[in-house]
Design a protein that fits this description.
2 helices; 3-stranded antiparallel beta sheet; alpha+beta; 25% helix; single chain
């Protein structure tokens, strides 16, 4: 039986402070995609984070959507 789907979102954009996650302009957020596992989301995140590594204001993040949809579920 396959593992339960744990939905993740990878997105990025310019942040007000490189140490935070407040995006400068929500209209300019880049939605990389939705992924059924943390491993797949991390692979996508890593690719985009590496593309923008020289730009301190660009930040990509992984959002654990499954935790928002079903907070009682365990998992990464």
């Amino acid at each position: 039986m396959p593992d339960k789907q744990l939905l993740h979102l990878v997105m990025g954009g310019r942040v007000a402070d490189p140490m935070g996650t407040e995006f400068q302009d929500l209209k300019d957020i880049h939605v990389v995609g939705f992924y059924p596992s943390y491993a797949e989301a991390e692979e996508a995140w890593r690719g985009w984070a590496q593309r923008t590594v020289d730009d301190a204001e660009m930040k990509y993040v992984i959002v654990h959507l499954h935790r928002l949809l079903e907070p009682e579920l365990p998992g990464k």
